[in-house]
Amino acid sequence: LRTRSGASTPRTEHTPTMLASIARAVRPVTSHRSAFANRSRLVARPVHRSSGVRRIAAAASANPIAVFDTSEGVFEAELFMDKVPITASNFVDLANTGFYDGLHFHRVIDNFMLQFGCPNSVDAKSTRSGTGGPKGGTSFLCNGETIKRDGGGNIPDELIDKTSNLPGTLSMANTGSPNSGGSQFFVNTVHNDFLDWHGGGPSKHPVFGKVVSGMDVVNKIGKCKTDRSDNPATPVKMNKVTIK
Questions:
Q1: How confident is the model at residue 46 (pLDDT cuts 50, 70, 90)?
Q2: How far, CA to CA in Å, does 202 sit from each of 19, 176, 195, 197, 199?
Q3: Do the beta carbons of residue 207 and residue 80 sit within 8 Å?
Q4: Stretch (H or E) spanning 124
Q5: In 3D, which of 162, 209, 201, 159 has the Cα closest to residue 180?
């Protein structure tokens, strides 16, 4: 899923050429119209375990839990440090440094996903939302090793775990080019298996976490009214992200 250039994106007439887009590449709006092609075919899969059981299971795994305090309520997600340590550590570093605090969900599409993490979205109506990321050249620790983001603030692709883009999973956004993920990610609200990096299609979006509590809040945000660029009509703010 790619980010957008700084212009609105229509909700219709998407073509398959940009099926995987949701990241932070700056592109002409005409080429980004297809960012969510074929989303009408996506079907939600039910989650069979209660949120309480999932939360307990996540705690037992010793993976960190991210707490997302939003203007619509709180949800929590297990971060898959055991499966994709670089991607999870990148997120933990950004959360611990306050990178995500005060930003807004800049793209929400019903029966698809919620996109978040662009620093330009501190202004909920900024036309540059979807084009930003971490500062280039910054670094973070992963299992005692220093990982340096490239000049564009991007991290190495971590295409090693085959967890699918199931409902409630957190997945990295990118430009469609290798090693182009930074701070932006999306929360799937349906099973978007066509976005799996291992699915054989053009999309390469590794999953790095899953909601373990508050999926009702995620679904509430997913149903909010949006404008023609899929930006929530009433801003949905991330008050704070904390790691426990």
A1: very low
A2: 8, 8, 8, 8, 9
A3: yes
A4: none
A5: 159
Average pLDDT over residues 83-97: 98
Cβ-contact 241, 69 below 8 angstroms: yes
pTM: 0.80
CB-CB contact of 204 with 197 (8 Å): yes
Task: State the catalytic residues.
Answer: 107, 112, 115, 174, 186, 195, 205
| Nearest CA among 119, 110, 128, 114 for reference residue 40 | 110
Residue with tokens 């900024």: 126
Asked if residue 37 lies in contact with residue 19, where contact means CB atoms within 8 angstroms, the answer is yes
Q: Which of 167, 244, 159, 243 is nearest to 210 (CA)?
A: 167
The three-class DSSP label of residue 70 is strand
Nearest to 152 by CA among 122, 121, 183: 183
pLDDT of residue 124 exceeding 80, the answer is yes
Judged by DSSP in three states, 192 sits in coil
Give the type of residue at 160: I
**At a CB cut-off of 8 Å and minimum separation 6, what does 83 contact?**
160, 161, 163, 208
AA letter at 133:
G
